[in-house]
Amino acid sequence: MRQRSLIAITAALAAGALTLTACGSRDDDGGSDSGNGGGGTTVVIGVDAPLTGDLSALGLGIKNSADLAAKTANKDKHVEGITFKVEALDDQGQPSVGQQNASQFVANDKVLGVVGPLNSSVGESMQQVFESGNMALVSPANTGPSLTQGPDWRTEKKRPFKTYFRTATTDAIQGPFAAQYVFNDFKKTKAFVIDDKKTYGAGLAGTFTDEFKKLGGKIVGTEHINPDTKDFSAVATKVKNSGADVVYYGGEYPQAGPLSKQIKGTGAKIPLVGGDGIYSADFIKLAGASGTGDLATSVGAPVEELPSAKEFVANYKTEGYKEPFEAYGGYSYDSAWAIIEAVKAVVEKNDGKLPDDARAQVVEAMQNVSFDGVTGKVSFDEFGDATNKQLTVYAVENGDWKAVKSGTYTG
Amino acid sequence: MNELPQQLVNGLLLGSMYGLIAIGYTMVYGIVQLINFAHGEIFMTGAFGALTVYIYILPDGTSMLIALPLMILGAVIVSVTVAIGAERFAYRPLRGGPRLAPLITAIGLSLALQQAVWAWYPDAKSARTFPQIEGGPFHIGSITLQTGSIFLLIAAPVSMAFLGYFVMKTRTGRGMQATAQDPDTAKLMGVNTDRIIVIAFALGAVFAAIGGVAYGLEYGHVDFKMGFILGLKAFTAAVLGGIGNIYGAMIGGVVLGVAETLATAYIGDIPGLGQFGSQSWADVWAFILLILVLLFRPQGLLGERVADRA
């Protein structure tokens, strides 16, 4: 019997280990010195993003861009008497870790607002904590519609949390925008839809499917993949035999890259299309040479082309950050700047000092911020969504993303 | 088009990878009754060893024809070093202690190795691209094969044949069998059991290293977490095949790989049960299979009914 019980203990330990890795390394010293200059009171802007693991390329871009916003505000003495400081926590793309981070931010009196997170599922887990703490959370990257418009957003929009804002557009716009491009411009009519079952991926796949069918396209197959594995050969074979001429993937680049590679590996020349979650240099690395021609939609106009963004790109370079700003750099800068603008409004209203209920007032002020940011005009509608609804289609060309079409989605 | 042959090949490939790692679990278990949970990480460090040889030692643009044997060598050296080090410093001091102690050490070691690669290997915080063999894909009837997959298809049976020969025909191999049956008696008969245990760890690591190279060639990239899930699956394969049985590990791996692939390909097609299908459920079916085997054949597919020992 000893042996059987050993197997049982082992299985239990294995399950425990699975949970353990989910909260493996924690990067507590994430805070970085944003320089002095404002003097007086220090206000901390929190950043929550995956700083390690698969999605760290995007996460580090978010952290650096928020840091740049704080540095710029300090240098220009944008808010008299206030020095901004960025403190970053690593959520590893895990909702449970994100929630712990949220509590940590709320417990820290110096934090007046937080930029992040990257994943919609993580955002979902953090919202209630911020609502209870009456503190503003501004996501540069969450695109799940339910985060701002409630779970029944398809039929009745209702804002669930007044403390949650975002500078990114939603999948309610991104999915259909991709469908229109794929059907009208890319001339593909038979789509195979794959998602990773997460809030972001499944949402995107759903809105794409609806619009694609409405336009007259055919969905020849659907699949859900398990984000923990890298073997998608069975799915790739199904895609090949389905007669699809395009694959839409709702999910992120760590799976999208290998998926694209393995689909092409079957000998099928079917391009993969995804959302902003695959718009990363790492997607191209993982998809390999055969990824040429794959498409991604991303929120906003290409950051490098907007005049308001040139300065951001130049400053980012000057600061010498090790990692590129990636897909959400501009949005993260604007998210941090929205917090800075809100703090400024609150401080000015209170004769140059932070009031006692600064957090609550920052949330109120957030609702009314309006400025020309890196990604265009930044302001929030009654749901906390960005009023700027621009999107861009990018294609992989010569090992790089190249913008092919920019526009606004009109229903 | 009939996709069954292709799906079977997909399953065979995935299963061979499980099998190569499962051998390490099974061999160590067979000899010291320890489930080396850090074995998945030995596989992972092997892959990084191969990557290191290609990127940092060989000159740029070396042909894979020359590079591949050297990469395998690099992978083997790294994996074996890690495995022997783990045995010497993490497991040997605990031998004779409660059974649970080395198991917990193994999990700790597994996390430590992951974090070490994460922290110290250049740019290993996200996936690193692995060099690919030029050419392909090849078409055999309705089956399409990547060049990288061919490596795995050849490496797995060749490794097995070698291992079979080693265990059955060599002096050391017979020493391993003796130690597995009864370490104390084996010791009395003049078998150096400490040496045998080290060899079992090292041999398991060699296969894990080959598996690591195969993984890199198959999927085109390696990352610090790759050993964890694959290690658990390989452990499952070892139990499925009958833990302690070398051929059982390979067969368990292949059965598991084929089951997962076929579940992904076909279970979604049950009318009205669409939500049970697709790849996100592959693991569920794999573990249901494991439970069924353990219920009706607790010793695993090829395992013998071992009298309780120790």
Automatic annotation (TrEMBL), chain B:
Record's bilayer topology term: Multi-pass membrane protein
Keywords recorded for this protein, A-Z: Amino-acid transport, Cell inner membrane, Cell membrane, Membrane, Transmembrane, Transmembrane helix, Transport
CDD domains xrefs: TM_PBP1_LivH_like
One BP annotation, GO: D-alanine transmembrane transport
MF terms (GO), sorted A to Z: L-isoleucine transmembrane transporter activity; L-leucine transmembrane transporter activity; L-phenylalanine transmembrane transporter activity; L-valine transmembrane transporter activity
Transmembrane regions listed in the UniProt entry: 12-35, 42-59, 65-86, 98-121, 150-168, 196-217, 237-259
Classification via PANTHER family: BRANCHED-CHAIN AMINO ACID TRANSPORT SYSTEM PERMEASE PROTEIN LIVH (PTHR11795), HIGH-AFFINITY BRANCHED-CHAIN AMINO ACID TRANSPORT SYSTEM PERMEASE PROTEIN LIVH (PTHR11795:SF371)
Protein name: Branched-chain amino acid ABC transporter permease
